[in-house]
Amino acid sequence: MKNRIASLSFFSALTLTVSCKNDKATEAETTEAGEVKEVSGEATQYNLDAKASKIEWTGSKPTGKHTGTITLADGAIFVKDSLLDSGKFNIDMNTIAVTDLKAGDGKEDLEAHLKGTAADAKEADMDHFFNVKKFPTASFEITSAKTENGKTTVEGNLTMKGITKNVKFPAKVTVNGDTVMLESDTFSINRTLWNVNYASKSVFDNLGDKFVNDDIELKVSVTAKK
Asked: Hey, what domains does the chain have and what are their CATH numbers?
């Protein structure tokens, strides 16, 4: 009986471990900045609808996680033969918002911490996360877009805090009349590649369990209109 209970416990633990691994977002392939894809002469321009576009993010640590959004400021998608051709988006880093906390329950404090705008923040503290006073915008500029079996592999230069890296992720691109919608799969990036180093075990020693995971999960949703 004891052996049976032990076996069931082991099986349950194994199942939980596998489930957690499967739930983890795929890390985007990240390389040095690539050559930006030139707009094809026959491509049609669709301008970003900022109100209908956003980036959803999830950050985690041993004791839990936080979720939020960032607003896209402006940009354009170019489409040729109903397929994504090229494009660029600017990201308003001042719009970083936390969605899992309510106002007055730590929401404003965490948002200020992420932005580096807390009233008591020293200059060194501001730079631990996104330092929006110094770097108010980020950008993503497509370097390659390849569509196969209804799925588009998007590669582009992501610039944050003055650092540019090329990231690659899958997305679904839908062209419907005067509207184009791009929705990425959930993927993750290693924030330390852009010097977002706060409480990173790969940067600082002796953090114990007081660390924040390097990977940030992202989901990009873009709507653009002709």
From this structure: 28-225 (2.40.128.110)
